[in-house]
Amino acid sequence: MESSRSPDARARDNQIRQIQEKITNVEKHFGEMCQLFACYMRKTARLRDKADLLVQEICLYADTETPNLKRGVKQYADYLATIQDYRHAEVERLEAKVIEPLKSYGAVVKRKRV
After folding, report:
1. What distance in Å separates the CA atoms of residue 64 and residue 42, rounded to the nearest whole number?
2. Which of 26, 36, 37 is nearest to 95 (CA)?
3. Cβ neighbour number for residue 112 with a 10 Å cutoff
4. What is the distance between the terminal CA atoms of the chain, rounded to a whole angstrom?
5. In Å, how far are 16, 18, 21, 81 from 7, measured between CA atoms?
6. Per residue in 17-51, pLDDT tens?
7. For the residues of 34-67, what is the DSSP string, one character each?
8. Would you tell me which of 8, 13, 19, 65 could form a disulfide with 69, CB atoms 3.0–4.6 Å apart?
């Protein structure tokens, strides 16, 4: 029965099958990447939150010390807080520049499948 089909029909069917395989492959891998990036972002955000708590605790400790030690410990806390500002920016960039585009690509793949 396969031989009764025209070469054009077989070529079209082959092309459709290849496109469907590509779409399935993209769905599988992009979905996994999106989940892993989101997990990475959540863990980075939790690390930032824990460091913020650490900065607060360092400041509380500094308030119990002598003026010279207090100044040095507070400066240390400020440096650590600055690092967390960068970590916060990293979380926001991951969301905006990586995760959102991957999510939107998922909608494109769904439209292509249809």
Report:
1. 34
2. 37
3. 13
4. 28
5. 14, 16, 21, 68
6. 998 898 888 888 888 888 898 899 899 999 999 99
7. HHHHHHHHHHHHHHHHHHHHHHHHHHHHHTTS-H
8. 65
Could you identify the residue written with the tokens 């991951």?
94
Give the tokens for residue 38.
Answer: 């989101």
Per-residue pLDDT of 52-88, as tens digits, reads 999 999 999 999 999 999 999 999 999 999 999 999 9
The pTM for the full model equals 0.69
What one-character-per-residue DSSP string does 74-105 give? Answer: HHHHHHHHHHHHHHHHHHHHIIIIIIHHHHHH
Cα separation, 35 vs 47, in Å, equals 18
Annotate 99-111 with b (16+ C-beta within 10 A) or e (fewer): beeeeeeeeebee
